[in-house]
């Protein structure tokens, strides 16, 4: 505040910090540098009682500034990071890790690897034990880079294989990377957490070397172990693996069930619905209807022709069979107040017709069934379709007229 | 003298003492391992001890340093400050006569009371002063380390010395020696009665000397010059000679981490004047710069207000008697007279005058502005009438710009200097490493700062805001006329405004709660707040201080009417 006449070191630096924050938020890197230059002398003062000390502030702010500032070079950045590593032993591994991330973002894979190796060999009394988690991460990322090298070797090998050459050296190198990678990746995924990239890579390695059992176990653990945080991707990876393995529909369906619960709008819901629709079990077909309706609740799916065609197909099928009409009623009940404006407005009718005839066809079918032949959407689209003399639209009109279920309104 | 052994080398009995207290043979300069425990103080003060090394007084522990006392340090500080003031235009008398005498007086009054040393030492200390603080000038200073035991820091000294790393806990302080001889002694609790010297007090000394000489620098100006770096204060130890090493508790004494506060310096000065038993200060008459009439003129100019307002300030000053010599002149020890803050007083007078003429109730002044604007539009001859609204807009704009600059400057303030300080020798290397890192980072980010304006000290100036009559945009209001708001009654010019609102009906007891009134922005009109804010910026003090003085003036002004419990509207509450 302007009337803060009792100015002292601490307040002055607090003010300085708030100017830096403003500058950062507005991406004014020069101005941030200006104030940061004045802030750094905080390092010479004892802040042991504060929650976040100046050394951490300077590390984080300095990183941002140097990363974005137009006149800053990678060399300067690296130099700065090295200085930051010496500033706080309790943070050493964290700083190393973040440095590695930046190097990777800049495409400097080799430097990143060197830094990881260096960090891995770091020992500092009891700090080593305290920073165990960070160490595991460092090892995991090194494992990841080993995987990357393995992958490169693999591609070389495949190329040579095509040409008819066999390269023992490359092959051995490849196996070497595999071993190094596998060891570290395996370790990290034991710890509860979100390790998508590590899991994917590890599974890739296992599959290549034919260890499908281990892969299956890893994926199951990742998806179903309650200690791990709920992660939709875990289920996706499992599903994809099972699919690759040619597993039964039953196990594929069970893999996707939880995904539907967590992320009803997931793109795999189409596959899910498709499998469920075809099922002989009534419960499964019922679930299928639920799944596809739920997916279309989301704005991202509004223009998804495939999704609409799934719904249309299932609804049409139910109508024709005249069995389980109550399913539709149940699903429509909670949606009849807002789906008409959300999906079936006159504006959307026009737009859909202009942009995507198939989409409008499927939607019109659904609209006609759910809202009747007098609804705006159906009327407009079917009229346009008939005008354009498209056969299927005439068929559509006939179908809806025939099956005009009054009870749904 | 009592050592009668024969020298191992030359068999003579002709001994002297080295600096380290060891005996050496004068004939062959053979140094023995025998040391002499100096207990007899007469020996120290009376004998002329020949030393081997004349120029260098190397103490093994101090490693290139010499012994020095805290008061010597302060003396150096005062000397530097006085020199700086001289460079700013203050007469040389201040340094050579006034300040020096005040300091000597202080030393006498305080040293004789607390000093554990024998009376002989007092003489020594004073003689150091006379030799204008060149510490090296006396090569025959005896070692007093034997007299004072090193672990004298008993009691529990709080050392939240911020220069040390987290290592500086209380336990450390008892084992860390200070660079000065009496650093740890200095901070012991029972010093209160003796008015222990502190850094802010150096400014009190300066101000006292300036006041004695009636120099044209107010306390707020002095403090502003300090913050702007024209007067050494922060990191003043940079100017200490190389040999005066600071460490341990010296840091707590000489290193400041906050700016001096007006109240503190002001109050200490008065305490000091009493402590030193000073007589009545030289009279502050109406030709002095510090007289309200003079200061009002200056502030009116700086605030871009019409010169004509000066008549009004003089009238108010006269009416309530604050221009009287006896009121303005400082008489230490006289508890019945109010301690006068000349700058705050003058600012407050202006505020009262503005209230008298413009009411400042967030309505009337704007109304008057409308009339003035109308009149100025239609009638350009005879000079413009003062338009409060226009004035407000012009001044607010400048004020906002300056305030913003000031806020940024404060945020960018650099507190550390090149000379590093270590609390103890133990953390010296850590401190140096940190310093190096700071310098590296400053270089790195300094380069990225774009157009780096070198932090050059602005030239010291008495005026922070200046307005030129030559500006054709009409942004200078000095020559504007108050005709539009005045009327003639019985031959006297009075304000058209018939009303006045008091800031407070009852004054608080200053001795009990420290203030005459308690200012809260929301309880007062915005215009009043703005005017307080303007002077608050100029004087670099809290608006509440000015508000206090305004209350005081108002109560003097309306004294009779208040006693009669009249029907005037009192505090305007929103």
Automatic annotation (TrEMBL), chain A:
Secretion signal, residue range per the UniProt entry: none
CC terms in the record's Gene Ontology section: RNA polymerase I transcription regulator complex
GO BP terms: transcription by RNA polymerase I
InterPro entries hit by this protein: SL1/TIF-IB_Component (IPR052669), TAF1A (IPR039495)
Protein name as catalogued: TAF1A polymerase
Pfam families, alphabetized: TAF1_subA (PF14929)
Taxonomic placement: Eukaryota, Metazoa, Chordata, Craniata, Vertebrata
TrEMBL record, chain B:
Main subcellular location of this protein, as a coarse class: nucleus
Domain of life: Eukaryota
Record keywords: DNA-binding, Metal-binding, Nucleus, Transcription, Transcription regulation, Zinc, Zinc-finger
Limits of the RRN7-type domain: 2-33
Any one Pfam family match given in the protein's UniProt record, by short name: Rrn7_cyclin_C
GO CC, alphabetical: RNA polymerase I core factor complex; RNA polymerase transcription factor SL1 complex
Keyword Magnesium attached: no
GO BP terms: nucleolar large rRNA transcription by RNA polymerase I
InterPro entries: Rrn7_cyclin_C, Rrn7_cyclin_N, TAF1B/Rrn7, TF_Rrn7_Zf
Residue span(s) of domain Rrn7/TAF1B C-terminal cyclin: 258-448
Molecular-function GO terms, alphabetical: RNA polymerase I core promoter sequence-specific DNA binding; zinc ion binding
UniProt keyword Zinc-finger present: yes
Domain Rrn7/TAF1B N-terminal cyclin: 74-241
Similarity comment: family membership: Belongs to the RRN7/TAF1B family.
The protein, known as: TATA box-binding protein-associated factor RNA polymerase I subunit B
Organism, as annotated: Cnemophilus loriae (Loria's bird-of-paradise)
Gene transcribed to yield this protein: Taf1b
């Amino acid at each position: 505040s302007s009337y803060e006449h009792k100015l002292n070191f601490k307040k002055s630096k607090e003010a300085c910090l708030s100017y830096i924050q403003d500058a950062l938020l507005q991406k004014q890197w020069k101005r941030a540098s200006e104030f940061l230059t004045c802030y750094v002398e905080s390092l010479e003062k004892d802040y042991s009682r504060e929650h976040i000390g100046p050394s951490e502030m300077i590390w984080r702010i300095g990183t941002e500034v140097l990363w974005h500032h137009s006149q800053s070079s990678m060399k300067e950045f690296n130099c700065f990071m090295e200085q930051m590593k010496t500033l706080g032993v309790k943070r050493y591994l964290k700083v190393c890790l973040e440095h590695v991330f930046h190097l990777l973002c800049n495409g400097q894979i080799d430097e990143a690897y060197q830094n990881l190796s260096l960090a891995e060999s770091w020992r500092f009394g009891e700090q080593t034990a305290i920073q165990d988690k960070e160490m595991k991460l460092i090892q995991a990322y090194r494992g990841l880079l080993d995987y990357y090298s393995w992958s490169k070797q693999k591609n070389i090998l495949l190329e040579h294989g095509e040409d008819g050459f066999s390269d023992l050296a490359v092959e051995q190198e490849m196996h070497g990377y595999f071993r190094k990678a596998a060891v570290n990746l395996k370790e990290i995924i034991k710890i509860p957490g979100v390790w998508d990239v590590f899991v994917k890579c590890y599974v890739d390695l296992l599959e290549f070397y034919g260890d499908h059992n281990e892969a299956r176990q890893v994926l199951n653990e990742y998806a179903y172990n309650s200690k791990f945080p709920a992660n939709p991707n875990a289920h996706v990876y499992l599903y994809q693996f099972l699919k690759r393995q040619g597993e039964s529909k039953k196990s594929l369906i069970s893999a996707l069930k939880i995904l539907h619960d967590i992320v009803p709008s997931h793109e795999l819901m189409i596959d899910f619905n498709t499998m469920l629709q075809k099922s002989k079990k009534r419960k499964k077909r019922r679930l299928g209807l639920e799944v596809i309706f739920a997916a279309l609740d989301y704005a991202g799916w509004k223009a998804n022709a495939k999704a609409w065609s799934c719904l249309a197909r299932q609804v049409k099928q139910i109508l024709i069979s005249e069995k389980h009409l109550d399913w539709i009623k149940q699903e429509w009940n909670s949606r009849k107040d807002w789906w008409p404006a959300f999906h079936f407005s006159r504006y959307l009718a026009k737009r859909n017709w202009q942009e995507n005839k198939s989409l409008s066809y499927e939607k019109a079918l659904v609209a006609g069934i759910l809202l009747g032949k007098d609804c705006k959407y159906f009327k407009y689209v079917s009229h346009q379709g008939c005008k354009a003399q498209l056969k299927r639209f005439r068929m559509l009109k006939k179908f809806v007229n025939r099956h005009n279920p009054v009870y749904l309104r | 003298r009592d050592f009668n052994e024969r020298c191992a080398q030359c068999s003579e009995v002709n001994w002297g003492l080295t600096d380290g207290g060891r005996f050496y043979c004068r004939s062959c300069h053979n140094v023995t391992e025998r040391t002499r425990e100096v207990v007899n103080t007469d020996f120290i003060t009376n004998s002329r001890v020949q030393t081997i090394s004349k120029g260098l007084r190397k103490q093994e522990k101090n490693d290139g340093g010499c012994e020095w006392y805290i008061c010597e340090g302060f003396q150096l500080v005062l000397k530097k400050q006085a020199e700086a003031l001289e460079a700013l235009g203050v007469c040389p008398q201040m340094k050579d006569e006034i300040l020096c005498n005040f300091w000597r007086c202080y030393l006498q009054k305080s040293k004789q009371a607390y000093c554990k040393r024998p009376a002989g030492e007092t003489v020594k200390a004073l003689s150091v002063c006379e030799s204008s603080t060149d510490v090296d000038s006396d090569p025959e200073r005896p070692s007093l380390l034997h007299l004072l035991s090193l672990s004298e820091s008993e009691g529990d000294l709080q050392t939240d010395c911020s220069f040390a790393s987290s290592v500086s806990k209380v336990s450390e302080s008892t084992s860390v020696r200070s660079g000065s001889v009496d650093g740890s002694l200095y901070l012991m609790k029972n010093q209160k009665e003796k008015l222990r010297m502190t850094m802010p007090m150096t400014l009190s000394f300066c101000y006292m000397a300036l006041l004695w000489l009636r120099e044209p620098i107010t306390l707020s100006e002095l403090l502003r010059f300090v913050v702007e770096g024209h007067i050494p204060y922060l990191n003043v130890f940079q100017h200490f000679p190389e040999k005066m090493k600071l460490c341990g508790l010296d840091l707590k004494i000489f290193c400041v981490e906050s700016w001096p506060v007006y109240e503190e310096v002001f109050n200490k000065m008065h305490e000091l004047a009493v402590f030193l038993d000073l007589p009545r200060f030289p009279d502050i008459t109406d030709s002095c710069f510090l007289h309200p009439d003079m200061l009002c003129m200056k502030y009116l100019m700086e605030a871009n207000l019409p010169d004509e307002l000066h008549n009004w300030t003089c009238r108010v000053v006269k009416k309530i008697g604050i221009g009287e010599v006896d009121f303005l002149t400082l008489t230490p020890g006289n508890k019945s007279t109010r301690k006068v803050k000349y700058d705050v007083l003058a600012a407050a007078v202006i505020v009262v005058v503005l209230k008298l003429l413009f009411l400042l109730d967030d309505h009337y002044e704007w109304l008057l502005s409308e009339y003035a604007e109308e009149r100025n539009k239609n009638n350009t001859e005879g000079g413009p009438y003062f338009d409060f609204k226009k004035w407000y807009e012009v001044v607010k704009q400048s004020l906002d710009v300056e305030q913003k600059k000031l806020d940024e400057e404060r945020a960018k303030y650099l507190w550390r200097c090149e000379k590093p300080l270590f609390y103890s020798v133990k953390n010296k290397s850590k401190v140096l490493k940190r310093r190096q890192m700071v310098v590296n980072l400053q270089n790195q980010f300094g380069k990225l700062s774009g157009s780096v304006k070198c932090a050059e000290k602005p030239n010291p100036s008495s005026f922070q805001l200046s307005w030129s009559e030559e500006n054709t945009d009409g942004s200078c209001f000095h020559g504007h006329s108050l005709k539009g708001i005045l009327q003639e009654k019985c031959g006297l010019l009075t304000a058209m405004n018939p009303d006045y609102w008091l800031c407070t009906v009852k004054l608080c007891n200053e001795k009990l709660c420290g203030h005459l009134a308690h200012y809260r922005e929301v309880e007062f009109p915005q215009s009043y707040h703005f005017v307080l804010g303007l002077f608050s910026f100029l004087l670099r003090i809290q608006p509440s201080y000015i508000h206090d003085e305004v209350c005081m003036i108002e109560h003097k002004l309306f004294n009779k009417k208040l006693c009669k419990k009249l029907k005037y509207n009192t505090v305007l509450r929103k």
